[in-house]
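FORM 12-B: Structure-to-Sequence Request
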């Protein structure tokens, strides 16, 4: 707990601005943090014992903590700092916009220049079926907007009974009521009587988990078939839309078989169901294309985006709207009674415009497709030879590997650890302690590094991961887990 002196000391340091690592009192900040700051998705009693790690600075693909430790940020913050840290042209664009017009709303027949420019630019970048953009402040709000928009669409089209939205178990679509309900995270649904009605979940296309006895492509067709089963069970005239992440992120970097999305698209077309791609992670180059849906054979009606649109420098999200829905909303629907104070926030849009310029001028999307993505894939294939790793895969600049007790010839022959041992958290601890930020989703270790990460930095990251796998292996053996 914070003593009075440490609180006063910390307060004076905060008012003094950015901390100097030499004189910075980490303990004082940790005490204030524990006393007042409720973190997202955190067991606070457990955190208080160790104290939160205080991140104070970032440059390129690295961040530094208040003790001066340098860490490779293998997670781009939270899947978002795609152009890396320390981009002064973004801070300058934000500063200039704040000086000119820090805020104005677009509710009552007014608009602002950065929002207009960004909308036009996003439509130009998006696949040809897109014509409009609705801006929000986050990915969760984008998916809330999706729910309201698809139901409104079917109202306008004279089919108001098309209300149900189908999603997938283990999907992540955000943490607002609609976002968490669309998502398929059991732990989130267990708190607060969720999901809300009108949302159904089918299985995820996770070959390692459900594909036993099938080759990958055959499994992709089976998994897509679960959508058709659900549509037929509900009645197609009740189904508004299907939503999915092109590659599931928070669920553990689950890359679907190549047959999956084209078959889902065929099924959506067959029953007139709208297809929504949640590209909050996959958009803006993460997979080596501007949008993951283009790469994986989806032709969505709506795309939700956030995170990488500003590289996380300031919050922004939105929904790209395809012509079929846009026509109904714009030409037929009159008022759509939905919006946020910060829809089209000029400062956020100015940050996004500069971020997109960087992605384009530095050819980062092409680099991910042709150079760094393949390099990361090779690095993870190499990591897959480690005795603790069952299998590894990647797509563009996301990758995952599974920790297993006994390695097998195929993904289905590996023997996992006891779930309750939490070997992933053990491994994550070794990673953090040795200068590499990697996330654990169960026993799956994942990375989504900044798109600016060079081949040399990928090699450095992979070397640190290998070393931490060695440490985890020794630790697990020492604990008698294998
Ligand atoms: C992060 C995320 C969201 C939620 O975005 P927030 O900005 O945290 O509200 C939604 N969908 C996906 C796929 C995400 O990864």
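FORM 12-B RESPONSE
SEQUENCE OUT:
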């Amino acid at each position: 707990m914070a003593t009075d002196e440490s609180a006063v000391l910390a307060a004076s340091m905060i008012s003094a601005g950015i901390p100097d690592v030499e004189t910075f009192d980490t303990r004082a900040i940790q005490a204030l943090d524990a006393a007042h700051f409720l973190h997202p998705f955190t067991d606070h009693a457990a955190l208080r014992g160790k104290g939160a790690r205080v991140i104070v600075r970032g440059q390129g693909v690295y961040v530094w903590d208040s003790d001066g430790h340098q860490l490779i940020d293998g997670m781009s913050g939270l899947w978002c700092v795609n152009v890396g840290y320390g981009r002064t042209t973004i801070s300058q664009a934000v500063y200039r916009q704040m000086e000119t017009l820090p805020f104005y709303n677009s509710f009552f027949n007014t608009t602002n220049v950065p929002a207009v420019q960004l909308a036009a630019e996003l439509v130009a970048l998006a696949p040809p079926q897109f014509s409009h953009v609705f801006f929000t402040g986050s990915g969760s709000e984008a998916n809330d907007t999706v729910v309201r928009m698809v139901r409104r669409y079917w109202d306008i089209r004279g089919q108001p009974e098309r209300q149900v939205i189908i999603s997938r178990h283990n999907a992540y679509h955000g943490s607002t009521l609609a976002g968490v309900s669309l998502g398929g995270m059991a732990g989130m649904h267990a708190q607060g009587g969720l999901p809300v009605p009108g949302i159904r979940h089918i299985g995820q296309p996770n070959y390692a988990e459900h594909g036993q006895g099938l080759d990958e492509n055959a499994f992709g067709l089976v998994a897509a078939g679960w959508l058709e089963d659900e549509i037929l069970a509900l009645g197609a005239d009740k189904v508004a839309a299907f939503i999915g992440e092109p590659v599931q992120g928070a669920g553990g970097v689950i890359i679907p078989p190549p047959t999956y999305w084209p078959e889902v698209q065929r099924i959506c077309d067959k029953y007139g169901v709208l297809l929504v791609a949640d590209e909050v992670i996959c958009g803006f180059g993460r997979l080596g294309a501007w949008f993951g849906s283009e790469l994986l054979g989806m032709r969505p009606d709506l795309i939700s985006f956030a995170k990488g649109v500003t590289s996380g420098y300031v919050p922004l999200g939105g929904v790209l709207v395809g012509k079929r829905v846009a026509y109904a909303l714009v030409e037929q629907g009159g008022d759509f009674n939905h919006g946020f104070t910060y829809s089209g926030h000029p400062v956020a849009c100015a940050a996004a415009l500069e971020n997109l310029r960087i992605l384009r001028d530095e050819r980062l999307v092409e680099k991910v497709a042709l150079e760094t993505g393949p390099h990361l894939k090779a690095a993870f294939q190499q990591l897959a030879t480690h005795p603790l790793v069952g299998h590894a895969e990647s797509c563009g600049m996301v990758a995952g590997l599974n920790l297993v007790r006994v390695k097998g010839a195929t993904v289905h022959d590996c023997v996992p650890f006891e779930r309750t041992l939490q070997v992933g958290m053990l491994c994550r601890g070794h990673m953090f302690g040795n200068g590499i930020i990697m996330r654990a989703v169960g026993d799956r270790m994942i990375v989504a590094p900044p798109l600016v990460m060079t081949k040399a930095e990928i090699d450095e990251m992979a070397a640190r991961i290998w070393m931490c796998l060695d440490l985890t292996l020794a630790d697990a053996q020492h604990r008698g887990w294998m």
